[in-house]
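Q: Could you fold this chain for me?
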Amino acid sequence: MTSELTHYTLEDILPHRGKMLLIDSIVEADENCAVTTTLIKPSFPLTDGKSVQPLIMVELAAQTAGVCNGLDRIQEKGIDSSKMGWLVGIKRARFHVQSIAMGMIVQTRSENIHNYDRLREVSAVVTLQGEVIGEIILQLYQM
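A: Sure. Below is the predicted structure, expressed as structure tokens.
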């Protein structure tokens, strides 16, 4: 984790709260890339109690992108600046599993591949036990 992140909580960086804050920890991050981990929990949306649908990886990718983009926002505008951003497009999503079992820990790596003003295109890869289970390209808009 970059030294800048040691001063911030997930709530400082992201607007998500309660059950909608899906990521558990930041492994590393800077203003262009972030890596997070997530424990798959029964409280997640898209679950049947035993597993979660792979579509959850889109939100994991978006929240992980929010970590690096939130850090960039804090460095430019300060910690009290607006945390709001929107997922405005899913350019591509490839899921290599039918579901993800409860209790599994997934790692998500998100990287800005294009950054123009407030619009960002983000590439994300989700892994489970070292195997790629999802590849997502998102389009995000930051306030």
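A (continued): The chain has a mean pLDDT of 89.
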